[in-house]
């Protein structure tokens, strides 16, 4: 059984927080202007979070990922700019993400609940967390993150969502610019629908074929290329036992097939740098056709992760060093 790239520790206990008003549906704006889900920072996919609407924001992660940004104008003024960057960037993904902006000065109780659930003595600020199905989807990211790094993160998460068949999207929130002209409201790109539907149905072979059509039609389509690369990894690793694969690779360190299989499983499990390092070392040890296979496969993993990812840039440098 393959590992999944999204991993969480468990649902967050919200019992210490206020419940939203019973008549207020998730996503509906509050009549009093607070506790609702109106767009924040000029984005249709961002919301200012407080004690009253936190539960409904977290509940929205059952549809698609929710990105929480904890910031503090008093403790870390630059963190508020990071929150604004996240709000702006998620708007470019047509509902794949919802940003929840939490001012810990105004809502310290939320920070306490998250710190306790994450087993942290104190919540660092700023802090970025991604939730899916009410659970942390990736390890929390503390400290300031540049706009460029945030963009890379969202691109990578978007690729993983596509590869895993997670196709849900948030609806634009009240008060955001998408409501100014409903006719121009962005929606899911229909080109990817057949491949995403195939992944959601567990038909990996069909998904590979659909992504291949997109790449053949437009080789410059980076999202389609990444989707194809990830779908092929899923195809190769179907039904593979991770422990057995690791044992086989350890017993035959120069067996290209065995090393490639573990690298694929590592990448799916979120151990991207380990996957790259394994194949870089394989390139370093092998020669001729074996070396070419290891190199070509590593390049395909670069495509799956995304060429703008800092880990890919480091991986390319390591590959160049191993080759020359």
From TrEMBL:
It comes from the Bacteria. This is Co-chaperone YbbN. It comes from Nocardioides immobilis. Residues 20-31 have a biased composition (Low complexity). Residues 178-187 have a biased composition (Acidic residues). Residues 1-36, 168-193 are annotated as: Disordered. SUPFAM superfamilies: Thioredoxin-like, TPR-like. Gene3D superfamilies: Glutaredoxin, Tetratricopeptide repeat domain. InterPro entries: Thioredoxin-like_sf, TPR-like_helical_dom_sf. Transmembrane segments: none annotated.
């Amino acid at each position: 059984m393959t590992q999944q790239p999204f991993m969480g520790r468990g649902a967050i206990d919200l019992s210490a927080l206020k419940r939203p008003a019973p008549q207020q549906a998730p996503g509906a704006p509050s009549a009093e202007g607070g506790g609702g889900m109106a767009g924040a920072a000029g984005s249709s996919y961002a919301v200012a979070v407080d004690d009253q609407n936190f539960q409904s924001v977290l509940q929205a992660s059952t549809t698609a990922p929710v990105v929480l940004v904890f910031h503090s104008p008093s403790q870390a003024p630059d963190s508020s700019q990071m929150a604004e960057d996240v709000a702006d960037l998620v708007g470019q993904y047509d509902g794949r993400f919802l940003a929840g902006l939490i001012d810990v000065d105004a809502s310290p109780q939320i920070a306490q609940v998250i710190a306790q659930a994450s087993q942290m003595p104190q919540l660092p600020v700023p802090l970025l967390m991604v939730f899916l199905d009410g659970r942390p989807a990736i390890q929390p990211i503390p400290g300031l993150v540049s706009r460029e790094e945030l963009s890379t993160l969202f691109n990578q998460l978007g690729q993983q969502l596509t590869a895993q068949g997670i196709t849900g999207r948030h609806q634009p929130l009240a008060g955001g610019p998408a409501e100014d002209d409903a006719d121009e409201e962005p929606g899911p790109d229909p080109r990817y629908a057949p491949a995403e539907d195939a992944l959601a149905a567990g038909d990996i072979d069909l998904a590979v074929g659909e992504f291949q059509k997109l790449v053949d039609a437009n080789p410059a389509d980076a999202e389609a290329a990444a989707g194809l690369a990830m779908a092929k990894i899923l195809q190769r690793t179907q039904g593979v036992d991770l422990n057995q694969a690791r044992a086989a690779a350890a017993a035959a360190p120069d067996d290209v097939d065995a090393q490639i299989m573990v690298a694929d499983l590592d990448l799916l499990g979120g151990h991207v740098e380990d996957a790259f390092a394994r194949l870089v070392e394989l390139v370093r040890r092998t020669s001729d056709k074996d070396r070419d296979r290891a190199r070509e496969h590593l390049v395909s993993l670069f495509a799956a992760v995304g060429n703008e990812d800092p880990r890919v840039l480091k991986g390319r440098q390591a590959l160049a060093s191993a080759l020359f």
